Every structure is written in C-alpha cells, then in structure tokens.
Amino acid sequence: MNYIELINQFWRLNEEHSFTTSEVAVYFYLLNTANRLSWKNPFNQSNGYIINALNISEPTLIRVRNNLKNYGLLDFKSDKGRKNLTLYTLKYLNNFSIPVSNTVSNVVSIPVSIPVE
Predict the structure, then answer these.
(1) What is the DSSP string of the chain?
(2) pLDDT tens-place string over residues 2-30
C-alpha cells in the first residue's frame, strides 16, 4: 500500500458511491495524518482535533467515519476515555482492481476483420 494507491482507490470508489464533501475531507485528513506520522498504521487521533481542523460537528465525524468503514477504506476503534482518542487503520482493498486483460477479453469476444483494398 502506498499514498498514490490509496488516493486512486478512493477516487475509484467515489465513482460508485459519490462521496460527500465531509467524507472526502475526513478521509484525506486521515490520509495526511498517516503520511505526517511516517505511515504509522494504525494511529491515534482525537475527535476534537479532527472536528476543529475540518470545522465539522462530532455527529458528522461519527457518521462519516462509519460510512468510510462501510466502504472498506478504514477501520477504527473508539476510546471512551478523557481524551476521546480513536485508533484509525487505513485499509487497502487487495481485490479492488480488475486486471486489464480480463476486461479486454470480456469486451472483445469476436474477431474483427478489416477488408484489404
């Protein structure tokens, strides 16, 4: 898994799910956080810090991260402690891409001939 693969995966899934602005913001905030932490995965992040950085409400953050988890982009475990930290894990969907050769063979199923003049 690398930065570009995670970004490409996100935008391919966006074509199917049409992510909301908040979903885009939270995912890329978490992606940037993992990058700043030298790709520590999983990593902790405070709900309050995300809410303040993105100017969203806590219910929005909770709804959005549940959606991102359902899409398979991340996993998380919430802490009910004083700091309200959440442990985030960014996910890479190994079976997400379709090999080009399979796509082509399914689309082109009959031979094509071009008349010679």
Answers:
(1) --HHHHHHHHHHHHHHH---HHHHHHHHHHHHHHHHTTS-SSEEEEHHHHHHHHT--HHHHHHHHHHHHHTTSEEEEE--STT-EEEEEE---TT-SPPHHHHHHHH--S-------
(2) 889 999 999 999 999 999 999 999 999 99
